[in-house]
Amino acid sequence: MTLSTATTDFVAAQRVNRRNTFLLLAILTLLAASLGYLIGWLLSFDDAAPRGWSNGGVIGAGLMAAASIGWSLVSLAISDKMVLGMASAKDIDKADAPQLFNVVEEMSIAAGIPMPRVMVLETDALNAFATGASVQRGTIVVTRGLLDTLSRDELQGVVAHEMAHIANLDTRYMVMVGVTVGLIALVCDMALRTLNWGGSAHNRSSSGDKKNSGGAAILIIILLVIGILAPLAAKAVQFAVSRQREYLADATSVQFTRNPNGLISALAKLAEKAAPFPGVSHATQHLFIVNPVQDFTKDTPALLATHPDIEDRIARLRNLGG
Q: Could you give the C-alpha distances from 218 to 79, 132, 222, in angstroms and in order?
């Protein structure tokens, strides 16, 4: 599908991401509460009827709902510090990289957002990422290898791409997606670990009631299925969201620079020299402009790819320029 810069409205993208963030939080809270109820029901010793409410389940649901909301809020507050700390990003002065600061200033004006914080990763690998829960707290990080290798036009294309992530509120949305995946995995792991003990305890307490035993068996089966499939589904959603955000950021970069050739050339170089480096992990790989851990091609299954194929991204950018 051919995109047009005229259809790339990052203000509209912000509205969509705010709505998606709210929906994501609501779905996460509902899922966490449901799992909490199942865990509480299985671990409780009250002999609630199958059609009644388990006191332990209600308590578990409330605790997990509170944990979901609390974890999300805390993550939004400190996520940028955590990511920057994990990546070992360092602050630099304008005198250390005047061209980089000038490009960032230009792109912040083009995006209509405050000047982001500028940081550098001391590695020869070519890469960059953005973080920040709001446009006021945005940070753009580039590697030393990228600074030493790219031309000004190429650097502008990369910076504009990362600026687009901040302007589109992708950085906030990806925090929420990461929190969703993490919490779902944690809750499901807890459920699977307590499944045998909790299920047997409840069955012992209701051994005289075949209906209750049947209800417990059904809940255990449901919990087992959710515990296995939910983390996989959440990870697939995370990767799908990440891929779409990359396409949008590429298009918005062209809107900011009016020059797709800079980003096209930069992506070609990044594809050749992207490599793992200290501070990069599977928890942060989706943040970078190209994945530093894995190389994705057209043959990579979509469910396993955090980024679109570089050739496909370049082809779409060429269509924008045409």
A: 38, 43, 6
For residues 253 and 288, give the distance between their C-alpha atoms in angstroms, rounded to a whole number: 15
User: Residue 131: which residues within 8 A CB-CB, separation 6 or more?
Assistant: 79, 80, 83, 84, 138, 139, 141, 171, 287
Considering the four listed CATH numbers 3.90.1150.10, 1.10.1240.10, 3.30.2010.10, 3.40.50.970, the one that applies to the domain covering 92-170+242-319 is 3.30.2010.10
Closest CA to 88 of 114, 113, 125, 116: 125
- What does the domain layout of the chain look like in residue ranges? 8-85+171-205+212-221, 92-170+242-319
> What number of other Cβ atoms are within 10 A of residue 167's Cβ?
28
The phi-psi region of residue 209 (left if phi > 0; otherwise alpha if psi is between -120 and 50; otherwise beta) is: beta
Distances (CA, A) of 290 to 76, 86, 205, 232, 269: 24, 18, 54, 23, 11
Cβ neighbours of residue 316 under 8 Å, at least 6 residues apart? 2, 3, 247, 250, 251
Give residue-wise pLDDT tens across range 18-60: 676 677 667 767 877 877 787 777 766 554 445 567 788 888 8
Predicted TM-score (pTM) of this structure: 0.75
List 105, 106, 122, 162, catalytic entry = 162
d(CA 112, CA 93) in angstroms, rounded, equals 23
Per-residue pLDDT of 209-250, as tens digits, reads 554 555 556 666 776 777 677 667 666 766 766 777 888 889
Question: Catalytic site residue 162?
Answer: yes
Q: Measure the CA–CA gap between 265 and 154, rounded to whole angstroms.
A: 6
Tokens of residue 162, six digits: 């990362």
β-pairing, 117-121 vs 139-143, is parallel
The angle subtended at Cα 283 by Cα 119 and Cα 245, nearest 5°, is 75
